[in-house]
Amino acid sequence: MRILAAVFLVLAIAACQSHSTLYQQLGGADGVDSLVTRFMERIGSDPRIAARFADTDPARFHRLLSAQICSISNGGCVYDGDSMAQVHAGMDIRPAEFNALVEDLISAMNDEGLPQAVQNQLLARLAPMQGDIVGH
Amino acid sequence: MARLVLLIAWGLALTGPAFGERGRLLATGGIAHLDGGAGGGIVPMALLAGYASDDQYGGTVSATRTDVDDYRLNTFSAAFNWHNRIELSASRQVFNLGTLGRQVGTGALDLQVNTVGVKVRLAGDVLYTEMPQVSLGAVYRRHHDFDIPELVGAREDSGTDAYLAATKVFLAGWLEQRWLVNAAVRNSSANHAGLVGFGGDRESGRSTLLEGTLGWFASDALLIGTEYRQKPDNLTALDEDNWRDVFIAWFPDKQWSLAAAAVDLGDIGPLEDQRGVYLSLTGSF
Lengths: 136, 285
Hints:
CATH architecture of chain A: Orthogonal Bundle
Radius of gyration of chain A: 16 Å
Distance between the termini of chain A: 48 Å
CATH topology of chain B: Porin
Oligomer: heterodimer
Distance between the termini of chain B: 21 Å
CATH architecture of chain B: Beta Barrel
CATH class of chain A: Mainly Alpha
Helix content of chain A: 55-70%
Strand content of chain B: over 45%
Number of domains of chain B: 1
Number of helices of chain A: 8
């Protein structure tokens, strides 16, 4: 019980210290740029989903995804690309493919050394998009 | 029936990755409930066993040992998951009444119970929808050794539980941590979770019981939590209390998981304060 109390105390202190935006916790523009690059490397070498990105322009994808992450992490960017529903319309993305993508993102975040609490927040803000991306 | 399902599942497990598919995220299959379906050890969840996604199939096999002061329970179980929609499960449970058997002069007694279960995911996704994942399940249990349960007043040697479970993972919940919250409501006439027959002298019919789980993800692969299971008290000769535990579940990869728990089963009949340890190994295919 004492150990549990200590764990929560540490978590509470850590949470109180994070007044900064999620964007800042991701490392700002440089951090997001690096994360997206790692993520794209992971996707490109993932046999489960790499073929889905065969026709994707890497530079454009990098720019739009960076803007989107900046936007949802309170980095002050405006994402001006197509909506997730528009981008994935007609692709019939399977849930297993979406989950493979999430696994690649988690691997990329681990590669970048992002703390669990930061990873949790980014995942939580991306998770509601699943319904717009899968099965259309 | 239960034996056949177990045999097939073990066979499939040995074929390993060649058979099933694992398109869901780590830990989203929970751990094996005593009855074989996905849950925590003593409380079922709305999750479906294994890692099969919407167009896949797969499953799990599990071995569990629960040792409390005067009783022991060994469980072998299996579950099959079709399209992350329907889960079929089976288990063979051997309940050892060590101390009680010696007290009544029959020696260390083993009671064997076989179960088969079905669970259907009705709505929601544990990770991606605002609403929790909600599933409806039923478990049928049958005793092979009914003499002792009958002696202490159990009315039936078989019975069926029905339950509704709702499970949600808050990816960045309180303190920006990842939390698992699960609640289940069960309708059952089982005595001692079905290990000592169904219905009794105090209460012969069915009861509606509440159960819950709260877990904290220390990492993607490590879940620490607690379970609580409300129990009826149907038998005068063999009192029962609510069950609770504190558990840690480790998911090193999608093929294996290991769970350990400190369990508190309260009084079981004349033997009070039954506390001990639960250990469970699950393989996914």
